[in-house]
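Message: I would love a firmer grasp of how sequence relates to backbone shape in proteins. Thank you; the sequence and its tokens follow:
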Amino acid sequence: MTHVFMSALVAGANSGQIVSFPTDTIPALAVRPDYAELIFTLKQRSNNKPLILMGSFPSSLWSYVKGTDAELEIWQQVAKHYWPGALTLVLPASDKVPAAMNPTDPTTIGLRVPDSRVAIAILSQTGPLATTSANVSGKPPLHTMPEIEAEFPEVLTLHPTESKELEERHPNTQGAPSTVVKWTGDGWQILRQGAVSFDCSLSKG
């Protein structure tokens, strides 16, 4: 069995292993950002599909982006409105982001803070992790830890007694991926409509 308690999962993540845990949308595969290429290999994922950087709170993520003071104010206001929650912000990447996170366009990075006590408990101990859905590329996302363990036996998954939040997700977001919006320089572009509705007028601080 690959499921472990949170302390062992955190230790594995910190050492560079791929781990999986529930979020407020669908379970994530996660790894340290500097080991991001491991997820592309595991999922047989195309390099043109970037990973998302997930953190336990907004202030843990801002050093991974770069922008003007005015832009940062806008981004922080949007984050304050939607985070924690099922919204991914695609923003200009700073030099701190490993190129392997987004191999074909390392100038941008997607950021999210999940509305999940379990995920935040893990991320607060590991720091931001590179994340994606738990599935082989091109196949539907897996929704349970047993499914993930069967598909990816080398991945550390959270023990069932510590992953009950999968059963406690809000019905409006259960099984739906996050909404993805990209900053264009003067406003927002919706790249994927997901679990939450986004107000594109939120472009002023």
Observations:
- Residues 69-82 form the longest helix (14 residues).
- The helical segments are 6-14, 37-43, 69-82, 117-126, 145-151.
- The chain has a mean pLDDT of 90.
